[in-house]
Amino acid sequence: MLTGSMLKQAVISGANNICSQKERINDLNIFPVPDGDTGTNMSMTISEAVKAVSACESDNAGEVAKVIASAMLRGARGNSGVILSLLFRGFAKGLEGKETATGKDLVKALGLGVDAAYKAVMKPTEGTILTVAREAFEEGAKIVKKTQDPAQVWSVVCTAADESLQRTPDLLPVLKKAGVVDAGGKGLLVIFEGMLSYIKDGVMIEYTASQSTSDASDDDTFRSAAAEFDEVINFTYCTEFIVGRDASITTSPLKLRAYLETIGDCVVVVDDEEIIKVHVHTEDPGKALQRGLQYGQLLTVKVENMRQQHEQAKAENDKRQAKKKLEVAAPEEEIGFVAVASGDGLTTLFTDLGCNHVVSGGQSMNPSTDDIYEAVMATPAKTVFVLPNNKNIIMAAEQTAKIVEDREVIILPTKTIPQGITAMLAYDPDNDAVINKGAMQDAFASVSTGQITFAARDSEFGMKKIKEGEIIGLDNGKLTVAEKSPKKALLKLAKSMITKDAEFVTLIYGAGISEQDATEVYDELILKYGNDVDINMINGGQPIYYYILGIE
Known about the structure:
Elements: H1 4-26, H2 38-54, H3 61-75, H4 78-94, H5 103-120, H6 129-143, H7 150-171, H8 173-178, H9 183-201, E1 237-245, H10 253-263, E2 264-271, E3 275-282, H11 285-292, E4 296-305, H12 306-322, E5 333-341, H13 344-352, E6 357-360, H14 369-377, E7 381-387, H15 394-403, E8 408-411, H16 417-425, H17 433-445, E9 448-454, E10 459-461, E11 464-466, E12 471-475, E13 478-483, H18 486-497, E14 504-509, H19 515-529, E15 534-539, E16 547-551
Parallel strand pairs: 5-6, 5-7, 7-8, 14-15
Antiparallel strand pairs: 1-3, 1-4, 2-3, 9-12, 9-16, 10-11, 12-13, 14-16
């Protein structure tokens, strides 16, 4: 039998396991766009359950499962986190009223979670976490006819999940082409295996620093806030540059690497026939750049003061820790709005358009269900419209609507910032919520969105080979442009997206673009398209995206 205490420890072991491996899971993401990576979202979601069960004194399996499910639902981030929370909500329903759980109870609970997860996804795709969970349940349902021992049953569930995961490339050609398995399915398996370690052997998998094949080094949500900033910085400047190789220079880049290792650490030198990409932490960026010039011209240069960033990050973390929750507001007005956006300019814009609250978040920073819930409850309206403005946040927003009881929550499934802006502009205060919902949906449905960002990893899409760090352009989420600079990428993307039917174009420039650079791009757009379309420019201040282009 599985007691409540054993279930607590099993979930903590599963959380430790995925927090330790989250970067490896992130690396399975095949699309090169920097996003709210799967491993990070799933680890942050289950870490909320760890916090909750640590304060739960009950040994009742049903009560513990309820605490876990509630915490994960509120802490769910990204689509993978929401699906994970729904799977564990099945545990709360399946173990309800049970002091202890048999293997049959566990399988039944998993089945309820699988049903809930499939129903929550509008168009379920096989070859994903859904498939892995379902096939694990199906094999578990077979073994309970022979044994009800939780350890034996969960062992079969894990084996089936692993076998299902290995088949995901056969179901999704894009996975097979990239040579990887599904990231969400892998995350689920890692959690299940962590749970098995405790259920079967009583061994708690301990947390270890997340390992990655990439250079990513984001904060680990499972560590304490204090430990997060205890890392030693040996050198002040993070220096990155790309050298366009001079064909006449035959000196091996290995010599460049050897030199850089004498003046710094964290050295990465990657080269091909055209370029040499360099990353080094050093006290003297000038020396690194001078040595790089011996191989050709510098194409890009980025130098950041890591000590200053370290202090700023610590200050921001302290600020977040001290931030008071928004106060709940009585629903006195008829209609209110909550939007999700990142960047001072976009936050101000959505506020000016009538949003009561703007939740900080977006690509690579998916807010949790609880973040959205808090903003909804702080909005003094009987009906609250929520604009996620990112496809990976829609599911978390939809879960919010299910747990709000004293006001109606309407999710407008905006997938991009331009869609959210157009939806708000279509709102008419003289109409009721039903009419406004239809009008706002019709309005944002006609919006096309272009985005200029950087490739977070090497990848290949169609006939395009994308290198990490390369500037890429997305046409409604589809990668269509790869260039050396944000300006070139934006103008090339605009050429393909601004058709003769376009009437309005909005250019939103981000935190990585100066006003001068943005104005140059804006002027070129005016010169080429200004006679036919109305073009506006906004300083959004958003991270990740150099430019966002909205076209109606």
